[in-house]
Amino acid sequence: MLTFDLDPGPRVDWEFVLDTALALRDALTADGYAPWPKTSGGKGLHVMVPLPDRSSDWDRARSWAKRFVERFARRDARYTVQSTVKREGRIFLDYLRNGRGSSAVAAYSPRAHSGFPVAMPVTWAEVEAGVKADSYRLRDVISRAHPRRRRR
After folding, report:
1. Which pTM value belongs to this model?
2. Kind of pairing between the strands at 91-94 and 79-80
3. Alpha-carbon dihedral angle through residues 34, 120, 5, 115, given to the nearest 10 degrees
4. Cβ neighbourhood burial of 47 (10 Å; 0-12, 13-18, 19+)
5. Sheet with 91-94, side-by-side order of all strands
6. Can you give the pLDDT at residue 150?
7. Is 60 helix (H, G, I), strand (E, B) or coil?
8. 2-145 architecture in CATH?
9. DSSP assignments along 83-139, one per residue
C-alpha cells in the first residue's frame, strides 16, 4: 500500500486540496491503480494506493511514488514534492511515507488534536461533497464501521 499525503501549507484553500485528491485519483486510475481516500485527522488528505504486485520491494515502491508525484506536480506551480521549500500557498505531495521505516497515520487512528479527530477512510463521493480532514471523531469510528441495521 502506498500513501500520498496531501499536506497543505498556509493559505491553501481546502477546495484546492479536494480538487488535488480527485485529480490524483484520476491520474492513478488512468495508470491502472484503484486508489481510495482517507482523511488524515489533521490538516490534509491521504490518497491510498493498493499495490497489485506484492513482490515490489520498498525501494522500488518509493521510487515509483516519487516519480509519479514529480510528474503530477508539473501540472501546477502550487504543488511541491520538496518538504524544505517555502510551502505557503502550496500543497506538499508527500510520497516520503513510503520508505522503509517511515511512518504514516493508520486508518481509524485518533490524532492528538482538540476533539480527537480520527484518520478515516472515506469515499470519493465524500471527497466530492467536501469532507474535511478532521470531519470524524472517535465516536464516529464505531458508527461507520458498524452502521445500524434498519428495523423491520
Report:
1. 0.89
2. parallel
3. 170
4. buried
5. 36-39, 45-49, 2-8, 91-94, 79-80
6. 42
7. helix
8. Alpha-Beta Complex (3.90)
9. TTS--TT-EEEE-GGGSTT---PPTT-B-SSTT-BB--B--HHHHHTT--TT--BHH
Highest mean pLDDT: which range of 87-91, 108-112, 139-143: 87-91
Contact 48, 2 (CB under 8 A): yes
Q: What is the mean pLDDT of residues 35-49?
A: 95
C-alpha cell at 139: 465516536
Residue with cell 502506498: 2
Q: Which three cell numbers stand for residue 110?
A: 485518533
Distance (Å, whole) CA 111 – CA 129: 23
| Amino acid at site 67 | R
Is the four-CA dihedral 89, 90, 91, 96 of positive or negative sign?
negative
Q: Which three cell numbers stand for residue 132?
A: 474535511
Per-residue cell: 151: 428495523
Q: Could you give the 3-state DSSP secondary structure of residue 14?
A: helix
Whole-angstrom distance, CA of residue 134 vs CA of residue 59: 31
The cell for 64 is: 515509483
Phi, psi of 41 (to 5 degrees): 80, 0
